[in-house]
Design brief:
- The chain has two domains: 178 residues, 3-Layer(aba) Sandwich (Rossmann fold), CATH 3.40.50; 83 residues, Leucine Dehydrogenase, chain A, domain 1 (Rossmann fold, 3-Layer(aba) Sandwich).
- The strands form three sheets. The chain has a six-stranded parallel sheet. A three-stranded parallel sheet has the order 3-2-4, with helices on both faces. A two-stranded antiparallel ribbon has the order 9-10.
- It is globular.
- The chain has twelve helices and eleven strands.
- It is 36% helix and 13% strand.
- By secondary structure, the chain is an alpha/beta fold.
- The N terminus is likely disordered.
- Bound molecules: 5,10-Methenyltetrahydrofolate (GUE).
- 5,10-Methenyltetrahydrofolate (GUE) binds next to helix 1, strand 4 and helix 12.
- It catalyses: (6R)-5,10-methenyltetrahydrofolate + H2O = (6R)-10-formyltetrahydrofolate + H(+); (6R)-5,10-methylene-5,6,7,8-tetrahydrofolate + NADP(+) = (6R)-5,10-methenyltetrahydrofolate + NADPH.
- One of its GO terms (biological process) is photorespiration.
- Pathway: One-carbon metabolism; tetrahydrofolate interconversion.
- Catalyzes the oxidation of 5,10-methylenetetrahydrofolate to 5,10-methenyltetrahydrofolate and then the hydrolysis of 5,10-methenyltetrahydrofolate to 10-formyltetrahydrofolate.
- Belongs to the tetrahydrofolate dehydrogenase/cyclohydrolase family.
Length: 362
């Protein structure tokens, strides 16, 4: 399979060479789109002999590497299932009382394998809760006008309550122009500038909140993790994860700092945080030493790294070095099975909310 992978070893303490495959991928590229570009040039610690931004080995202190995990696992897969069950009940209640079935339309442009997989998963998730799904597939070489045309026709279609334009779009298209065309009443991704603007303003309410950051906050809520008055650090400032995650945390009364590729001392700042949300797309970048004891960690990164013993030839790791972090943190999301499944659950939730709002159904 064509994928850009990085050999990453987070469990061994022996130095292994850093090998970086750059077979122009699908997955990593997608994640870069998703979380934005952030490369922290962490310098190699003397005697450690590894690039900290990529490799992640256990603590050199043997007593420490033998210690047990302290952190509670925040089970996104299980919470997503609970959320889907709740949505299923609401969807059927709505259908029974007013005869309306919520509908989600997905516009998929081009033939990226990963995008096709995501779209298939979203469709499956819709089916599992009784939401009707619509799909338009356009070729890689289709024009921006054709994409706009399908967006506009979904805007006018009363059986569609949510519209999602799968990102990334082919490079010859103007993403802003297309996202702006989605009716804000159907913008279940929450990417329309008016929704983001409202999210940023006190006393205003967006119609939709972007799914991944919403999923992060939902996990904190469902695990009864207090946000109010806490210090939070968001690593990454993308439009679709980092920035809205920081805005949401602030709305929940956390004191928020955003770390990005130009931040001078990311490790020191991150070490002050009670809550960390990492969304950068760099495998194992956040090391144990970055984490304040007892912190809560939400790992948005989904990074493929080569693993020849895995069935697919790769496995997925987060931005946070899990083996190190789970010895320091009080709670942590795994990858996979953390934020990813919540993203899709929040998309279904936004679609249900939209259908209820459009039909004035409580
Ligand atoms: N308009 C738009 N909206 C999106 O929300 C959007 C998008 N474009 N483009 C692509 C990204 C990526 N994304 C994911 C959703 C779920 C998982 C997910 O469920 N992952 C599983 C892993 C599944 C596996 O094993 O491959 C997990 O983390 O457990 C991952 C990634 C939504 N995105």
């Amino acid at each position: 399979m064509a994928s850009s992978m990085i050999f990453t070893d987070c469990s061994s303490s022996t130095a292994s060479p850093l090998i970086h495959f750059n077979r122009r991928s699908s997955n990593t590229f997608l994640l870069r789109q998703c979380v934005g570009q952030l490369r922290l040039r962490t310098t190699t610690a003397p005697g450690r002999g590894c690039s900290l931004s990529i490799r992640c080995s256990s603590s050199p202190n043997p007593s420490n590497s033998d210690s047990e995990a302290l952190a509670k696992v925040i089970d996104g897969k299980a919470v997503a299932k609970t959320v889907r069950d709740e949505i299923t009940i609401e969807v059927s209640r709505m259908k029974e009382s007013i005869g309306v079935v919520p509908g989600l339309a997905v516009v998929l442009v081009g033939d990226r394998k990963d995008s096709a997989t995501y779209v298939r998963n979203k469709k499956k998730a819709c089916e599992s809760v009784g939401i009707k799904s619509f799909e338009v597939r356009l070729g890689e070489d289709s024009s921006e006008e054709e994409v706009l045309k399908s967006v506009l026709s979904f805007n006018d279609d009363p059986s569609v309550h949510g519209i999602l334009v799968q990102l990334p779009l082919p490079s010859h298209m103007d993403e802003q122009n297309i996202l702006n065309a989605v009716s804000i009443e159907k913008d279940v991704d929450g990417f329309h500038p008016l929704n983001i603007g409202r999210l940023a303003m006190r006393g205003r309410e967006p119609l939709f909140v972007p799914c991944t950051p919403k999923g992060c906050i939902e996990l904190l809520h469902r695990y009864n993790i207090e946000i109010k008055g806490k210090t939070a650090v968001v690593i990454g400032r993308s439009n679709i994860v980092g920035m809205p995650a920081a805005l949401l945390l602030q709305r929940e009364d956390a004191t928020v700092t955003i770390i990005h590729s130009r931040t001078k001392n990311p490790e020191e700042i991150t070490r002050e945080a009670d809550i960390i949300i990492s969304a950068v797309g760099q495998p194992n970048m956040v090391r144990g030493s970055w984490i304040k004891p007892g912190a809560v960690l939400i790992d948005v990164g989904i990074n493929p790294v080569e693993d020849l013993s895995a069935p697919r030839g790769y496995r997925l790791v987060g931005d946070i070095c899990y083996e190190e972090a789970c010895k320091v943190a009080s709670a942590i999301t795994p990858v996979p099975g953390g934020v990813g499944p919540m993203t899709i659950a929040m998309l279904l939730s936004n679609t249900l909310t939209s259908a209820k709002r459009i039909h004035n159904f409580q």
